[in-house]
Structure formats: structure tokens, C-alpha cells
Specification:
The chain is of the alpha/beta class. Helix 23 (504-532) packs across helix 26 (579-596). The radius of gyration is 27 Å and the shape is globular. Residues 349-500 form the 6-phosphogluconate dehydrogenase NADP-binding domain.
């Protein structure tokens, strides 16, 4: 008996996994054989649909066969695993996009790689023995094979819960979470398959009522409450402060798993949520991790403890559960020329104007990913892998997209006068500067009048985000322009949100940073008050970070040294986001408020405080969270 049976029976292409003694674990050869069959059947008129099932009662597919991955990784051969995952992900994407119905019958265990084979088709059938899970964090990986897409689409914060705990879903929970579509008693599966083979018509699948809601669905409120945080640290805090049976059982599950993997899984889901979610983006983020998992992650140690030595005592990195944001960024930064390629596509030619502290690493990431980038900066600076142009017009010549990263609106308007006439019709002018809304709209109109598309997309994330490819883009402009430059956003950042028409990106950025400036001031004031009231900073953090005072300024960027996740306060307030940049953004917010006749007293007060801090005190060159030591030494005026 071979590991897999592939044949045509009646109107159906039939794929049966035949390794019941190994719980039908997927080998590399099985993966390639399935892809070959799907390619052959796509345009075969004799095949109306595809049916995928498996032998044995215990499992549809328990995952990938990882013996070869471990052996090659231990020998220092990381290329084998990278090729395995790249080819597997290509197959997962083909199943997801397949033009004909794909019907899978998911008895017993469907886990890891089995999800990639069985849960991306058009009709996913579960029965009473079905147990579906994404257990990758238990072996030092992240939920992959496209599973992160389904986790990101799951109700509430169920995705984070399933991805971090490896919890198993029964039939009802699998349908609730979006991993399956149809409940059918397993006694009816054989007759259903025979009917599909005979007719080639999925309308003959007779679904029955889903069983009563499963235990995971019943805990949805608790899951949402504990897993809504932006990081693994947030989740630890809420679970550890709760003595309920659910919280304690969840902690026990999570403490078995790789902290680095869980932190990266949470970050992947955060990046995926939103209108730009696609299977391609999910697989790309997954591959960024798995391609590094042997050399830099916990994968080899996870396999050793679970499969090889079976001591169940993995020695994880960051075993205390505190995973620095930089470690997450390192695992998920773009892979450059080694990035996952699901299809061969012609790369865009890019002009990049403004190669300063932010622009240079952004341009370098694009060049590293294989884009043809020509850069220009009036100061003569350059970026790794980026061609040097003698002028902005030369950089823009024949480019499909021109990116600008400039200091202010006046300079943007001036540069646009040179760029727009030099750009070819249909190209996109993508401005990533933070400028006033009026300048963004004026430049967009100028570009559109010249037959170009224009997108204003200021960024959040600072120099570290520019270097690590983790920026967030807030974009305004036409839908067509946004879609054309989305592949560039995917290289330079973690998320891009289309906020509306021209100027909407700048509006979103200044509103966001007005909130940030005000909340950081309030957070710093509260810590200074707590000091004078004799309240320990750590105790204050433990309370506020899990209650109504929760904010990004407190939980992710705490201004108090030694409290919360690593932040600039732990490095002498060396800037991640400089106070003078916050001053600039608050100035833009108040300029916009005056133009729009909007009453923003808190924003105006934040502007006045940062203006005094930067121009009259010691704020210049310090992080914007250095407001805390300012308030520490002051009494009431």
C-alpha cells in the first residue's frame, strides 16, 4: 500500500491518505503528489469536483511528517525545511483558490498540516469523532499552512486562544470557528462520497443540524476578555489575575508552549485582521517565521522534547514568558529575495525620494525583496541595495510607483512639482510622509490631473518599525491606487488600512497621534501621582493594565523604567519616537482642527505641554515618554 491513493472515480478526482498507522501524517512526497493531481484536474472536463478523505478511524491527517525536517535541521541544513514549507504553502494556496469544489471528510484528528489539506476547500465535513486543532506552538512553530487566516477570521479573540493553547475543536466548535462547514454523521460518509462520484454535484451533500455548541464556543466571553490584548504579555497579565477554572486551565495549557511562538502567533493575527486580509498575506507571514524557525526559533528543541527524546521538558527561549518585541520583529521581518513566492509575478519598478532615518530602511527592505528601486535624497544619502539616481525626476522615470518620505507639506509640494511631470501615466505616487491634510489633498489632485494614481499613507512604528518591516500604514486615496501598492505595504509593514479618499490617511495619522500624545501625558502624570501617594509602580501597572485605564501607552510602551514590556524608558529614554516628532504631529492635529472648526482642548493642551518640553526644557532628542521624569520633579503650579 502506498502512502496516498490518487485516481479518478466517476466525476470525482479522488485523493485518499493511506498512512493510518502514522495518523495519516503528510510527507513531502504526498504533498507534491496532491499538487500534481490538482494541477492536472483543474482543466480536465471529466473531473467535476475533488474529494479528499483518509483511511482509518483515528485521523484525517495529524500534521506533517517532521522526522526529515528535524534530521536536516540538526545537521545545519535549513534549506530543506524552507523548501518543504514553501512547497506545502503553495499547495495550501492552490486548494484555497481552486476553481472546482473540493470536499474533505475530516474524521478524528485534523491538525497542523492536516488543516492545510482539509480545511481550505469549498466543503469541509466533520462528524462526531472530529478533533481539529492548530498545535504548532507546542513544537516551536506558529499556526501555519494558512491556518492563521482562519484564526484571524474566527469570532472575537478565538483566534488568539486557539493559536496559543492548541485547544481541540469538536464538530460544533470547528463550524463555529470557521474551520468546517457541514456536520454529517460519519455513517453517512461512504454513501455521500459515492453520490459525489456518480453525480459530480455538491448539492447532493445533505447537511444535518450541528450538534449542541461545543465547550470552546461556550467560553467565548471569557476568551474575548482574556485574549483581547495586543501582546503575549497582556494575555499573561489578565490570565494570572483571574482565579477561575477557565483561566487557570488556559495558563496550564499555554505554559507548555514556546513563548516566542505564541508571541509571534499573536502578532501575525494582529497584522492580518482588517480589510487587507488575504491567504497570500497569511502564508507570507507564516513563512517568515517558519523559514527562520530552525535557526532562530524553538522548532528543533520542540521536536526534540516532543518526538525524539520524549521528555516533554523543552528548554524554550524566553522561558519566563517575557518575549521582547524585537525578538518578534526579528522572526517576522521580510525575507527579501527569499520571500515566499506563490506565483511568479513581475516586480514593480520603484522610485524612492527621501532616504533619511525612515526612508532608507524602507527602501532597503523593498530592494531586499527583489524590487528594482532607484533612490534619491537631496542630502546625498543612500540605502542598501538601492540604485542611486541623480535627481527626483530620474528616480521617478519609468517607475510603476514613486514613494516619498519627506519632512513637511511644503517640501512635499515642491518635490511633487518635479516628480509628477516625470512619472508615466498610470503610475502611483505614494506619499508616506506625515504632512498637513491640505498638502496631501493638493498633491493628490495634481497627480490625478496628470493621469496618475495618488495614495497618502503616513506611517506609525518609528525607525525600528521601518528597519524591521513592521510599520502600520494609514492610507487615503483611490481603491485602485491602494490595491496597486498593497504588495509594497506587505514588505515595508505589518498592516495597511485604507481610510478613505485623498487626505484620509493623514487625517487618521494626526487623530491617532493626538490620542497618543494625550494618553502618554495622562499615563506619565498618573505614575508621578502614584509615586507621591506611595503606590509602587509595578502594583499600579498590574492594576491599570488589566482594568479601565488600559492603553497602548501603559501596556505596550510603559514610560516607567523596569515596568511592563521593554520600552525606551528602559534605555534612558533614547527615542523610539522622539518628543519633537510628537510635537510636530500635535501641531498638525491642531492646524487641522482649526481648519475644520473642531474643538480639541485636550489636543491643544498636549501640544502646549510638548512645545514647552521640547523648546524650553530637556525634551529635544528624548523619547516622547520622557514626560514621566519631567512630571516626577514637579509640584503643582
Amino acid at each position: 500500500m502506498t502512502d496516498i491513493s490518487i485516481r479518478i472515480t466517476g466525476r470525482a478526482g479522488r485523493i485518499t491518505l493511506q498512512r493510518p498507522d502514522a495518523l495519516n501524517a503528510m510527507t513531502y512526497d504526498m504533498c507534491l503528489a496532491i499538487e500534481t493531481a490538482l494541477d492536472a484536474w483543474r482543466d480536465d472536463p471529466a473531473v467535476a469536483l475533488v474529494v479528499i478523505d483518509a483511511m482509518g478511524e483515528r485521523a484525517f491527517c495529524s500534521g506533517g511528517d517532521i522526522a526529515d525536517l528535524y534530521a536536516t535541521g540538526r545537521a545545519g541544513d535549513f534549506a530543506y525545511g524552507q523548501k518543504f514549507w514553501a512547497d506545502e504553502y503553495r499547495l495550501n494556496n492552490k486548494i484555497f483558490e481552486y476553481s472546482k469544489p473540493v470536499v474533505s471528510f475530516l474524521q478524528g484528528f485534523t491538525m497542523g498540516g492536516g488543516v492545510g489539506i482539509g480545511c481550505h476547500g469549498s466543503h469541509r465535513i466533520v462528524g462526531d469523532t472530529s478533533q481539529i486543532a492548530m498545535p504548532e506552538v507546542g513544537i516551536g512553530l506558529v499556526p501555519d499552512v494558512g491556518g492563521s487566516l482562519m484564526l484571524a477570521l474566527a469570532p472575537g479573540r478565538l483566534g488568539e486562544y486557539l493559536g496559543c493553547t492548541a485547544a481541540r475543536m469538536n464538530a460544533g466548535d470547528a463550524i463555529f470557528a470557521g474551520f468546517a462547514d457541514i456536520y454529517l454523521p460519519e455513517a453517512a460518509w461512504d454513501s455521500t462520497i459515492k453520490t459525489l462520484e456518480l453525480t459530480g454535484d455538491v448539492d447532493h451533500i445533505k447537511a444535518q443540524d450541528v450538534p449542541a455548541s461545543g465547550p470552546i464556543e461556550n467560553n467565548q466571553d471569557a476568551i474575548n476578555r482574556h485574549f483581547h490584548g495586543a501582546s503575549l504579555g497582556d494575555i499573561w497579565i489578565t490570565l494570572e489575575s483571574d482565579t477561575s477554572d477557565f483561566a487557570q486551565a488556559t495558563l496550564k495549557q499555554m505554559k507548555r508552549n514556546s513563548p516566542l511562538s505564541m508571541a509571534c502567533a499573536i502578532e501575525i493575527l494582529s497584522r492580518l485582521r482588517g480589510p487587507s486580509l488575504t491567504m497570500g498575506k497569511a502564508l507570507d507571514l507564516e513563512y517568515r517565521f517558519t523559514a527562520r524557525a530552525m535557526e532562530h526559533g524553538d522548532f528543533l528543541e520542540g521536536i526534540r522534547a516532543a518526538i525524539i527524546d520524549k521528555d516533554r521538558q523543552p528548554k524554550w527561549q524566553f522561558a519566563d514568558g517575557v518575549v521582547p518585541p524585537m525578538a518578534v520583529s526579528k522572526m517576522l521581518q521580510p525575507l527579501g529575495a527569499q520571500a515566499l513566492k506563490l506565483k511568479e509575478e513581475a516586480q514593480m519598478k520603484i522610485g524612492f525620494i527621501g532616504l533619511g532615518n525612515m526612508g532608507a530602511p524602507m527602501a532597503a527592505n523593498l530592494a531586499s525583496a527583489g524590487f528594482d528601486v532607484a533612490g534619491f535624497d537631496p542630502a546625498g544619502t543612500s540605502a542598501a541595495g538601492v540604485g542611486v539616481a541623480s535627481s527626483a525626476a530620474q528616480a521617478a522615470s519609468d517607475a510603476d510607483a514613486v514613494i516619498t518620505m519627506l519632512p513637511n507639506g511644503a517640501i512635499l509640494r515642491s518635490v511633487a512639482e518635479e516628480l509628477v511631470p516625470a512619472m508615466k501615466s498610470g503610475a502611483v505616487l505614494l506619499d508616506c510622509s506625515t504632512v498637513d491634510v491640505d498638502s496631501a489633498r493638493a498633491v493628490a489632485k495634481q497627480a490625478q490631473d496628470a493621469g496618475l494614481m495618488a495614495v497618502d499613507a503616513p506611517v506609525s512604528g518609528g525607525i525600528g518599525g521601518a528597519s524591521g518591516g513592521t510599520l502600520t500604514f494609514m492610507a487615503g486615496g483611490t481603491e485602485a491606487g491602494f490595491l496597486k501598492v498593497t504588495p509594497l505595504f506587505d514588505i515595508m509593514g505589518q498592516k495597511a488600512v485604507h481610510c478613505g479618499e485623498a487626505g484620509a490617511g493623514q487625517a487618521a495619522k494626526i487623530c491617532n497621534n493626538m490620542i497618543l500624545g494625550a494618553t502618554m501625558i495622562a499615563t506619565c502624570e498618573a505614575f508621578a501621582l502614584a509615586d507621591k501617594l506611595g503606590l509602587e509602580r509595578q502594583k499600579m501597572f498590574d492594576v491599570v493594565s488589566t482594568s479601565s485605564g488600559y492603553s497602548w501607552s501603559m501596556n505596550a510602551y510603559c514610560p516607567a523604567p523596569g515596568v511592563g514590556p521593554q520600552s525606551p524608558s528602559d534605555n534612558g529614554y533614547t527615542p523610539g519616537f522622539a518628543a519633537e516628532l510628537m510635537l510636530k504631529d500635535l501641531g498638525l492635529s491642531q492646524q487641522a482642527a482649526e481648519t475644520a472648526d473642531a474643538d480639541t482642548p485636550m489636543g491643544a493642551l498636549a501640544l502646549a505641554l510638548y512645545k514647552r518640553f521640547v523648546e524650553e526644557e530637556d525634551g529635544m532628542g528624548r523619547d516622547f515618554s520622557a514626560m514621566l521624569p519631567r512630571f516626577e520633579g514637579r509640584g503643582r503650579d
